[in-house]
Amino acid sequence: MSHIAIVSASVGAGHDGAAAELGRRLTAAGYRVDTHDLVELLPRPFGALLSHGYQRQVQSAPWLWHATASTFDRALPAAAAARATRTGDRRILAAVRPDTVAVISTYPLASQALGRLRRSGQLAVPVITYLTDPYVHRTWIADGVDATLAVHAATAAQARRLGARTVRLVAPAVAPGFRPAAGTDEVRTARRRFRLPPTGPLALIVAGSLGLGRPERTATDVLATGLATPVVACGRYRTLHQRLTAVPGPVPLGWTDEMPTLMRAVDVVIHNAGGLTSLEALATGLPTITYRPLAGHGRANAATLERAGIIPWVRDVEQLDGALRAALGRPDRRHDTRSAPDPAATIVGLLDRRPVTRVHVPDRQRWLRPRGTGGLSARRPPTRSHQ
Predict the structure, then answer these.
(1) What is the mean pLDDT of residues 240-248?
(2) How far is it, in rounded angstroms, from Cα 110 to Cα 116?
(3) From CA 117, how far away is CA 7, in angstroms rounded?
(4) Residue 193 and residue 159 in one domain
(5) Does the structure show a pLDDT above 60 at 102?
(6) DSSP state of 376
(7) Residue pLDDT, tens place only, 337-355
(8) How many structural domains does the chain have?
(9) Is residue 145 a part of any domain in this protein?
């Protein structure tokens, strides 16, 4: 049985969530899947900076994170970020089993590292990037990556403009549990499960697994409208949960592995990042609003989703009342991704082996199917083994 390696990063839960669902689907398709954390593959100081530095900047100095994200969204700084991942090359290559047929990235710097190794010939199997964000930051697109998967058409267009090769539009890698409630009985059962108010509209405020941003301010603003009771998913941020417990009105919830059930208990989702949570909300059929987006990638995602007509971006408290009224008046706002192919099926299709021809591309050589077949295959093994 062939292996597929997935490289994610424990920087929030969105990248890992997409990796887990892709792994589940590829396992069902008959592959053995190994998932790796880039944070652990890099030397300890760099890995710690990657995971903790992001969280500290977003929470304590959002202006600094916005400046950092904007800086590395340019060609030269993005190239510098790619070079910084060289310190993890040996561990990355050692993590790829001999019978691996592809490596998938769900994190930008993983794409940079894998693309470089692929381009240099040290990695002999196709590399595929699954974009977890609506906005395509420049570090997502790496020379040497064979194919890029995008969930939104606007995202796919951005990836192509930045030079991504073999871009495919796919359905979200969202767990099958995220679906609309079957009826009012299921909604009541879900509310009892989380000890939520049995009646009245509920607004689920989500700030990722780390509780980043200022979700308590969002809860206060929702309360002020008088339109819904704010339910705040605090993730693993215990301090946030403690603060909200002392405030009358909001309903704070700690970390839960039952997010599909929680979403079926509420009437609207308010998010601030635009990643996996927004896809889960749309799959559940919930009206979704972007409010107080995180600096950097959060605002970029918000702008992309709004321009594409997928999720509105409410920019201030004065607009929140009208946005909530509109959302609660249209209870089913699913973004139609049913016509898009399954991402695992797309990956399998790209790896389907057929006669190959050698195609020379500047600064890289790859073994590809003849034009028009749409598939990828491994290039010849490099002369220097990394085993």
Answers:
(1) 81
(2) 10
(3) 14
(4) no
(5) yes
(6) B
(7) 556 899 999 999 999 753 3
(8) 2
(9) yes
In a domain, 301, yes or no: yes
Tell me which range, 116-120, 254-258, 328-332, 356-360, is most confidently predicted by mean pLDDT.
116-120
Mean pLDDT of 177-201: 94
234 with 103, same domain: the answer is no
Report yes or no on 334 lying in a domain.
no
Residues in the chain: 387
Same domain, 128 and 41: yes
Tokens found for residue 17: 């969530």
Report the distance separating Cα 20 and Cα 254, nearest Å.
21
Nearest-angstrom CA–CA distance, 150 and 139: 15
Least confident of 295-299, 333-337, 353-357: 353-357
Do 323 and 353 have their domain in common? no
Cβ atoms of residues 273 and 207 within 8 Å: yes
Q: Does 77 map to a domain?
A: yes
Same domain, 87 and 236: no
| Residue 75 φ/ψ, nearest 5 degrees | -60, -50
Please give, one letter per residue, the 3-state secondary structure of 316-375: CHHHHHHHHHHHHHCCCCCCCCCCCCCHHHHHHHHHCCCCCEEEEECCEEEEECCCCCCC
pLDDT for res 307 = 93
Domain of residue 300, residue span:
184-329
What CA–CA distances, in Å, run from 81 to 119, 232, 359? Answer: 17, 35, 28
Residue with tokens 């950097």: 296
CATH number, domain at 259?
3.40.50.2000
Clarify whether residues 349 and 297 are in a common domain: no
Q: Which residues in 95-199 belong to E strands, given as ranges?
A: 100-105, 127-130, 147-150, 167-169
Q: Quick check: 63 pLDDT over 90?
A: no
Q: Is 111 exposed, middle or buried (0-12, 13-18, 19+ CB in 10 A)?
A: buried
* pLDDT higher than 80, residue 384: no
Contact 205, 216 (CB under 8 A): no
Cα separation, 376 vs 352, in Å, equals 7
**Are 160 and 224 found together in one domain?**
no
Tokens describing residue 384: 């220097």
